[in-house]
Amino acid sequence: MVYGFPVTCIILAYFINCVTTAHLVSLSLSRSHVLPDFACEVTFTISHAMWYIIYTSQAVAIVWACSSTNREARKITSIIYNLLLQPGLDKEASDKLKEFSLQASREKLQFNGGGFAILDLPLLPSMCVSVISYLLVLLQWD
Question: Which of 23, 54, 69, 120 has the most neighbouring CB atoms within 10 Å?
Answer without folding.
Answer: 23
